[in-house]
Amino acid sequence: MNSNTTKNFRIATAVKVAVMALSLGVATTASAQVAGTWLVKAGYNRISPDVSSGNLSAASLPGTKIDVESADAAIVTFGYMFTNNISAELYLGTAYKHKIVGAGAIDGVGKIGSVDVLPPTLFAQYRFLEASSAFRPYVGLGVTYARFERERGSAVLTAITNPGGAPTTITIKNKVGFTPQIGVTYALTEKWFADAAVSKTYLKTTTTLSTGQKIDTKLDPMAVNLSIGYRF
Predict the structure, then answer these.
(1) How far is CA 47 from CA 35, 118, 148, 150, 201, in A?
(2) DSSP-assigned beta bridge partners for residue 155
(3) 205-231, pLDDT tens digit by residue?
(4) What's the Cα-to-Cα distance from 190 to each of 22, 40, 60, 135, rounded to whole Å?
(5) Do 105 and 63 touch, CB atoms closer than 8 A?
(6) 40-55 burial code (b ≥16 CB/10 A, e <16)
(7) Which long-range contacts (CB under 8 A, 24 or more apart) does 4-12 make?
(8) Could you read off the pLDDT of 37-92 as tens digits, one per residue?
(9) Which fold would CATH assign to domain 31-231?
(10) Nearest-angstrom CA–CA distance, 141 and 87
């Protein structure tokens, strides 16, 4: 056997070994994606409200509206596979700290308040492809409970709504919204996987000022998250 033949034989052998290893890896991964599997994920989530604001009620400058800036937070997710394709996941995490800014007639005044939001969400999901697939897209539909905490009005808000008076405070009503979701998981090893998902919550709430005015707002936030997970 000459040197070229020997070299080609070694390359062919290496390729066969790699293919076998990959096949075994996929098969091993598949065993962790079946019914009865628990999933735990930790990651990062960015929430970007798509605000449609009503007008602040009288007495106020006509056309006074609000906007809400994006916020980031760490998330943790717990999931369970009921079948090879149907799963449920509960999204939890730390509070999102959102800035509330002026819009409409008061656009440009800057920050008029802030709020911490806790939006736990429970999803029912359908995962596509076979349980043996390392790459698995999924869709989900969830229910989100948006809890608003530590609502604070700024000095700018007081100057607009109660100049020379006591600081204006705000209260935002907790609400429930529906959340469609799309995502994908990719198996890194038999137990570890990466996950990416996008969801949008349809949510409308009311903010009440201590000066008596109210404003209705559609928040409709978009969420984008990346996580690393473990199956067991």
Answers:
(1) 31, 11, 14, 18, 10
(2) none
(3) 999 999 999 999 999 999 999 999 999
(4) 12, 14, 60, 13
(5) yes
(6) ebebebebbbebebbb
(7) none
(8) 999 999 999 999 999 999 999 888 899 999 999 999 999 999 999 999 999 999 99
(9) Porin (2.40.160)
(10) 11
CA 217, CA 55: separation in Å to the nearest integer?
A: 9
User: What pLDDT shows up at residue 94?
Assistant: 95
Strand partners, 126: 86, 139
Cβ contact 65:56 at 8 Å? yes
CB neighbour list of residue 19: distance below 8 Å, 6 or more residues apart: none
Look up tokens 């970007």; give the residue.
48
When computed from its CA atoms, the radius of gyration of the chain, rounded to whole angstroms, is: 25
Taking the C-alpha atoms of residue 36 and residue 38, their distance in angstroms, rounded to an integer, is 7
